[in-house]
Amino acid sequence: MILEFNKENIITCAQKLKDGDVVSFPTETVYGLGANALNEKAVKEIYRLKGRPSINPLIVHIYDINQIDDFCILESYQKEFLNKLKVFWPGPLSLVLPKKDIIPNIVSAGKPSVAIRMPKHEVALSLFKEANLPIAAPSANISGFLSPTTAFHVDEAFKKFNVPVLDGGNCTVGLESTVLSLLKETPIILRHGFITKEKLENVLEIEVIDGTKSKSILPKDILSPGMLLKHYSPCTPLYLTSEKYPQSDNAAYISFKNSESELNDDVKNKFKHIVFLTNDKELIAKKLFYILHKLDKMRFDYIVIDSCDETGLGLAIMDRVTRATNKTVQK
Ligand code: TXA
Ligand code: MG
Predict the structure, then answer these.
(1) I want to staple 130 with a disulfide (CB 3.0 to 4.6 A). Which of 14, 66, 252, 326 is the partner?
(2) Residue 139 CB less than 6 A away from ligand 1
(3) For the purposes of burial, counting CB atoms within 10 Å of the CB of 234, is it exposed (0-12), middle (13-18) or buried (19 or more)?
(4) What is the per-residue pLDDT across 59-86, written as a single tens digit (0 to 9) for each?
């Protein structure tokens, strides 16, 4: 059930959260499926609705940076990091910190840490403020499928469960938040997102480790279970241009070029439908899931997708693209 953003619907949805129900809301990254983070039963319902493995912890969403003290125990170096990183809040950055006991183990999947984020979205912030609760929320997709960037995507996936979806239009960032662990004195990126390693290092003025490149050396208490799971796949088979794909006259191509004039004839002739996401990484990020959702409905035999260089935001884009190619095996 899609609900327009207005005062009345915010009050209704906030009451649902207080009553232990699940509500979907927009953020600048993707839509979230939220419940009261302090209510174990409500959080359990999120896992059930999504079909999410219980080993994968949830992000707790807040509306005021001071709420961190209610949920986390910070050492002085973590306070210093936070003080610098708050320039990115509200925004697409989740911080993993040592949790207080008030956060139920189901939220953190048994870990002693919790990921905290303050989204940059008027609808989300109004809802959290009205509910006056910390909100545990994963992306509002069935586990393993594409993340939602419109209210319609969420409604389609959760219609049969009657989940209310507050409509905030299209997400402006389009990829899930960067997840940064602050559990050790060297910060570690656990998931790439819009806030890149370069941006983090500029603000922190120290080196940040790319934990996604060195999973095997990460201590178990740092590792993010989400890093190991196959993710974000459309139902239609998706291939990288560098992969072997079958021949068909009913296939689509997602290009990271600006227009047809930049394509070679081979691609032009091979594909029935071509979408140009441009070569601007922010635009690619914003539209990637949206286009995959759209093409997935058009019943192509398969989709082939371009690659971009893995620098800056390109790391987050190629992480989502390779996971979506269906061939990332569950490790
Ligand atoms: O942009 C986003 O982050 C969206 C919106 C709704 O805020 N949420 C989102 O949540 O993408 P989800 O559940 O789809 O992804 C959360 C990621 C997972 O990879 C999970 O393993 C990791 O964060 N994570 C959560 N808590 C963690 C913790 N305590 N330690 C390590 N990783 C954690
Ligand atoms: Mg997710």
Answers:
(1) 14
(2) yes
(3) buried
(4) 999 999 999 999 999 999 999 999 999 9
